[in-house]
Amino acid sequence: MTEEERPDRRRPASEQTGSDRGGSDWSVSEPADRSASDWSDRSEADRATSDRVASDRYGSDRSAGERSDRAGSERSASGRPASDRVGSDRAAAQRAAARSGASRTRSERTVSDRRPSSERTVSARGRRVERGRTRRHRPGRGKIIRRRVVALAVVFGTIGLFYGVYFTPLLGVRSVEVLGTKDLSQKQVLTTAAVPSGAPMLTIDLAGIRDRVAALARVASVNVSRSWPATVRIDVAERVAVGVIKQPDGVHLVDHTGKDFATVSSEPAGLPELDLPRSDASDPTAVAVVRVLLAVPDKIRAEVLSVAAKSPNSVVLTLSAGRQVRWGSTDDSPRKAAVLAALMTQPGKIYDVSSPQLATIS
């Protein structure tokens, strides 16, 4: 081993770093009142010194490696095997590289340690703030458990409410209200409606109730609805008679559709007699008679005693004082009504408006 390769060889003072000299360069205490500019100048000088020391050391290590290579080549020339020479050269190169890397690492550590304490403090404070922020955003175990308990309570509460409303009498029918009846009694409507008491309001069959009540002959229309919290409301519109048909079994009432909807023992006052064998909403003659009666002006209708027809095109009205109106079919009924009102201002017995363009009085 040559003198240059000995590890205990003392390096020149110019090659020694601050750590090799015992840190004498950095042990000098700075006055407490030095300004920030002095500190910045000192830091720049220290960094320049460290770079120069590292460069000198790198050059010294490189020179040592070259000398080692020369010594190895001389020994090889003296007769040593080639494998020993190669191993010696490789070991010398590795030692030189290790010394160079250690020097650079020590220099970088020295420079990093000389950073102002304010920078290190700010960095540490930033890490603490980041850790605190992470802890704040991460919910605790107790909070997670409370959230799960609340979610389960909401789910089971919703299921319980759904079951109570749809399958129990919790919101069941407690009363039925009937409106609009005149000739019908409320008992008749309630018996026909057959609303199940205590049945859940949301599952009650409103359409079924409506169909059952609408089957009553006197009912023209019906509406069934829920009146919360526990009442079913039935609104009924009864049929209104516009004429009567006298039969052996009694007086049959006929509405504006021509339907025979009820039979009474005595004839109601103010209703004309319909001279028909029967009345049905599907009978064209009965429908024509009813439509003509409704088309007659109100003032004249009050004087109508009876309406007869053998066919839908031969409607005849009998008025008081032996007068007669030949109407014909239901075609152009509004114009016929206007012409008849004008003709009735003239004396006569027969008023023919079957052809309104050629109306006559006789």
Automatic annotation (TrEMBL):
<dbReference type="InterPro" id="IPR005548">
    <property type="entry name" value="Cell_div_FtsQ/DivIB_C"/>
</dbReference>
<dbReference type="InterPro" id="IPR013685">
    <property type="entry name" value="POTRA_FtsQ_type"/>
</dbReference>
<keyword id="KW-0472">Membrane</keyword>
<keyword id="KW-0131">Cell cycle</keyword>
<keyword id="KW-0132">Cell division</keyword>
<feature type="domain" description="POTRA">
    <location>
        <begin position="171"/>
        <end position="239"/>
    </location>
</feature>
<dbReference type="InterPro" id="IPR050487">
    <property type="entry name" value="FtsQ_DivIB"/>
</dbReference>
<feature type="compositionally biased region" description="Low complexity">
    <location>
        <begin position="89"/>
        <end position="104"/>
    </location>
</feature>
<dbReference type="GO" id="GO:0051301">
    <property type="term" value="P:cell division"/>
</dbReference>
<dbReference type="Pfam" id="PF08478">
    <property type="entry name" value="POTRA_1"/>
</dbReference>
<keyword id="KW-1003">Cell membrane</keyword>
<keyword id="KW-0812">Transmembrane</keyword>
<keyword id="KW-1133">Transmembrane helix</keyword>
<feature type="compositionally biased region" description="Basic and acidic residues">
    <location>
        <begin position="105"/>
        <end position="118"/>
    </location>
</feature>
<feature type="region of interest" description="Disordered">
    <location>
        <begin position="1"/>
        <end position="137"/>
    </location>
</feature>
<feature type="compositionally biased region" description="Basic and acidic residues">
    <location>
        <begin position="1"/>
        <end position="13"/>
    </location>
</feature>
<feature type="compositionally biased region" description="Basic and acidic residues">
    <location>
        <begin position="31"/>
        <end position="73"/>
    </location>
</feature>
<dbReference type="GO" id="GO:0005886">
    <property type="term" value="C:plasma membrane"/>
</dbReference>
<dbReference type="Pfam" id="PF03799">
    <property type="entry name" value="FtsQ_DivIB_C"/>
</dbReference>
<dbReference type="InterPro" id="IPR034746">
    <property type="entry name" value="POTRA"/>
</dbReference>
<protein>
    <submittedName>
        <fullName>Cell division protein FtsQ</fullName>
    </submittedName>
</protein>
<feature type="transmembrane region" description="Helical">
    <location>
        <begin position="149"/>
        <end position="167"/>
    </location>
</feature>
